[in-house]
C-alpha cells in the first residue's frame, strides 16, 4: 500500500503535515485556556476538584484549540452549498470538506469533475460532532434537513459531492476512531477480493464546541487537571 498524500488541521497552527511535524519536533504545547468564543468556561470550572470533578463541573479549563478563523470561516460557494446549509452543519463537518478536498488535490485531482466516476473508497472516523443537533432548525428548517446533522452522513456527503463510486464507510470507536478508520482502509486495499478498489482515503475529525463533554469526562475521572494528555502518567 502506497501513501499518496496526507493532510491535517490541528491546534497550534498545525495546518497541513509540514507544520504538524514542525510542531511535534519542536515540542509545541498547543493547549490554551478555552476561549469565550467557544463557550464561557468559568461557570463550569472548579479549580479545587480532585480526580473526579464536582457535579456539573470540569476539572480543567485547558484544551487544544484551533484559532477561530480555522474552524469558523468556510467558503460555501466553493462546495456548492447554500449559506444556510453551511450554517446548519457541524464545524467539524465543514473542516472535513476542506481538508478532504486539499487531500484530493494533492493526489492530482484538480476539480470536482475529475473525481466523478472514480472508483475511490472513503472511510471516515467520527466519534462526536459535539454540537446541538437542533442547531439552525429554528432559522432554516429546510437547510437543517439538507445538512442532515447526525453522525451517519459525513462520509456519504463526501461521496455524493465528489461523485465517487467506491465503498463508503463511517466508524465510531470512541478514542480509537481515526486509528480504526485508517486500519480499515489499509485492510481494504490489501484485500485480494476488494472489487477493484485501488485507491481510498481515510480521515478522522472532531471539534470541541460545548462544555458538556468536559463535565461528563471529569465526573468519570477521565480528565487531568492540567488538561493535557500525559501518557503512562497516573496523574494524566
From TrEMBL:
A single BP term in Gene Ontology: fatty acid biosynthetic process
- What residues does the Ketosynthase family 3 (KS3) domain cover? 1-236
**Organism from which the protein derives:** Alexandrium andersonii
Q: Which molecular-function annotations from GO does this UniProt entry contain?
A: fatty acid synthase activity
- Matching SMART domains, A to Z? PKS_KS (SM00825)
Please name the InterPro entries in this protein's record: Ketoacyl_synth_N, PKS_Beta-ketoAc_synthase_dom, PKS_NRPS_Biosynth_Enz, Thiolase-like
State which residue ranges cross the membrane. none
Output the Pfam families linked to this UniProt entry: ketoacyl-synt
Q: Alphabetically list the UniProt keywords.
A: Phosphopantetheine, Phosphoprotein
Which PROSITE patterns does this entry report, sorted A to Z?
Answer: KS3_2
Report what the protein is called.
Ketosynthase family 3 (KS3) domain-containing protein
Looking at the record's lineage, which domain of life comes first? Answer: Eukaryota
